[in-house]
């Protein structure tokens, strides 16, 4: 999920408050003919990383487990590729693209009713289509809490587990949601004698649960999930702005000092915001909420103006305009408490204290009233010309984070204005993620580095300072052997990734037993899991501009616009597209 705001953040925020009942539901990711056939599947971020078209022969919307079984049985019987898709479908890579005219989509949109709470065991069993916000609020009524979650509450339970979504913590079992899964019910392919489908009920005693907890959707349909919960607690939050001097060491110590803490680094400003975030007893006064500004419904007009302003700055190669806008935006975010509110209405100062379900995750724009279409929207709504960006989210081993930050500072010091474009998209968000029990989870304690940046409307258009962003991406992925977030990133982040998962062979053995025909797999999942040897990169003109390849020739950049393939300035093995008015080929 991106953490984006516009240049006119304060105006957009106030406008959204004034007309808060006039906004539009996000678009469906699936559009078919009137019979639910001949479907086009879109990314929530407007286009897929390679800008290709994703098609499916049919989509079904089961509302019961029996209907789910029927859909799967039909696909297995007819040898159709199968992909499960949630109501909003927020993964950036092509995880939900099936086999074109031979593919079936099964949506969990209508499979979101059941939340069964067992107070005596402090567990809850939930349908996979239930959205995170509905789940944490439902269990809160029983005095229970999910210890950790991603920051965006519009994800479905099945979707966030499939991609390994997480919050931030090194304490206890860590910040990944799947570490609190103690049971899962899957619908998987079977023989004709079994009716082409069967149920797999996994408990915490089953080793296969370590495969199912983060599966990329390739094992089968997640029907239900059982979570271990904790008694409700409150959190006390204080955002502290500091200089980034010594950030390399401070960020490591901070992970041990704050249970839910994270760090937002505004590198061009040489500042970092440390979120001091710890649990407190429920009898401590406070009724705070997390209403993160980047997830609020926002004026379409303001978002379009922001996009137009940034595009003009790109065309003029105007770094100063981006730096000025980033400074204003950061000041506005800090003034508004980064979206935290003390009394559910406004931010009045720190600390912000409130119940776990109201502080752990945030979202608003997806829960819309469709009164006047496209008046107030999610910033990433692809039906209009608003936010359009690249996402790079890579988890770097804690043992290497010191060196990564040092290298980014070296790049920054060569040209401080080059990172204003990142700070305009809320800088580097750094979250703590603990070593996972899941086969496709984190392989050691890590810090997840998440940054977003401008994406051009045209795939062949070079971008201001793109060489710097590409070098940071390659630093994280290759020099420091980071693990990309399964549900985010450009293609190049997944190069050679299968070799970094020591338990991948265990996962693939489970996959072979559950789905020997590979009906739930796709070209993309086979490639990133190392099954298909073709690789994730696409070699063609301009391919490096959008992260489809790492440039090795000038034509992979945009030589006609002055962008040529060059060696990295800090990471000598990096190859990036750099603007050079006086080129000489490498």
Which helices and strands appear, and what pairs or packs with what?
Elements: H1 9-18, E1 30-31, E2 37-41, E3 54-60, H2 65-77, E4 81-85, E5 100-107, E6 115-118, E7 123-127, H3 132-140, E8 144-145, H4 157-162, E9 181-189, E10 197-203, H5 209-212, E11 221-228, E12 230-231, E13 234-243, H6 247-257, E14 262-266, E15 271-280, E16 289-290, E17 298-299, H7 300-316, H8 319-335, E18 340-341, E19 352-355, H9 356-359, E20 376-377, E21 389-397, H10 398-414, H11 420-423, E22 428-433, E23 446-454, H12 466-479, E24 483-484, H13 504-514, H14 523-528, E25 563-567, E26 575-579
Parallel strand pairs: 3-5, 4-5
Antiparallel strand pairs: 1-2, 2-3, 6-7, 7-11, 8-12, 9-10, 9-11, 13-15, 13-19, 14-15, 14-22, 16-18, 17-20, 21-23, 21-24, 22-23, 25-26
**Structural Rg:** 23 Å
Query: Strands of the biggest beta sheet: in what spatial order?
Result: 19-13-15-14-22-23-21-24
Low-confidence stretches: 1-23
Could you describe the largest sheet, including whether it forms a barrel? 8 strands, antiparallel
Number of strands: 26
Integer average pLDDT:
93
- The count of helical stretches stands at 14
**Share of β-strand residues:** 15-25%
Helix content: 10-25%
Give the N-to-C terminal Cα separation: 36 Å
What coarse outline follows from CA principal-axis ratios? Answer: globular
Structural class: alpha+beta
What does this structure look like?
The protein is an alpha+beta fold. It has 14 helices and 26 strands. The strands form seven sheets. Strands 19-13-15-14-22-23-21-24 form an eight-stranded antiparallel sheet. A five-stranded mixed sheet has the order 1-2-3-5-4, covered by helices on one side. It has a five-stranded antiparallel sheet with strand order 6-7-11-9-10. The longest helix has 17 residues, at 300-316.
